[in-house]
Design goal:
Helices cover 30% and strands 23% of the residues. It has 181 residues and is α+β, with helices and mostly antiparallel strands. The protein has a single domain, classed as Nucleoside diphosphate kinase-like domain (Alpha-Beta Plaits, 2-Layer Sandwich), CATH 3.30.70. A hairpin with a 5-residue loop joins strand 4 and strand 5. The longest helix is centred in the last third of the chain and has 11 residues. Bound molecules: uridine-5'-diphosphate and magnesium ion (MG). Uridine-5'-diphosphate binds next to loops.
């Protein structure tokens, strides 16, 4: 099945100079790169992206991490959209398990990640967990014009393209829902 995923080089990966390494690993696959941007991670974007973890005790620390507060203000990350056969499984194999201590030591997270004393997994990359999350996250991080193939349906809205199906309340299409602020 053709799937699409969002790859993010998180602030720790950016600061440690791992962007080139991560990209190289993905270039070795035949997954198609269809979107790329340097993104500033605001609190809102981070909280929406990680909405499924908002009840977790480490949530605030996770938001601090992904918005760059723990990494000398590294508040920009590189975000990529990839598409291809079995993309989720293949991309997550490259990334490794969520907990760097449990990840295969040859994977990116196993090689370069760490666990902080506050229990946050600083694990270098984000890779979408499943195809539905992949779609939601790509629509959250990219405008339709930034994706080079017709990945998901679009509509014209106020003279520009918008995602036709925003993918539920967790996708940013207008003002931020209060619960994610
Ligand atoms: N995370 C964490 N501690 C946990 C679980 C998750 O710090 O016990 C962080 C970690 O950075 C992870 C992110 O929250 O990558 C998102 O969690 P998820 O369960 O979606 O894992 P992923 O899909 O990133 O492997
Ligand atoms: Mg996940």
């Amino acid at each position: 099945m053709t799937e699409s995923i969002l790859l993010i080089i998180k602030p720790d990966g950016m600061v440690k100079g791992l962007a080139g390494h991560v990209l190289r690993r993905f270039e070795e696959t035949d997954l198609k790169l269809v979107g790329a941007r340097l993104a500033k991670v605001s609190h809102d974007l981070a909280a929406t992206h990680y909405h499924h973890l908002r009840e977790k005790p480490f949530f605030e620390e996770l938001i601090n991490f992904i918005t760059g507060k723990l990494y000398a203000g590294q508040d920009t990350v590189l975000a990529f959209a990839y598409t291809g056969e079995g993309a989720v499984k293949r991309a997550r194999a490259i990334a490794g398990a969520t907990n760097p201590e449990e990840a295969d030591y040859r994977s990116i997270r196993g090689s370069f990640g760490r666990v902080t004393t506050k229990g946050v997994f600083e694990n270098v990359v984000h890779v979408s967990s499943d195809p539905i999350e992949g779609e939601r996250e790509i629509k959250l991080w990219f405008h339709p014009e930034e994706i080079t193939v017709p990945l998901f349906p679009t509509v014209e809205q106020d003279g520009r393209l918008a995602w036709a199906d925003p993918g539920g309340p967790k996708t940013r299409t207008g003002p931020w829902p209060e619960e994610y602020k």
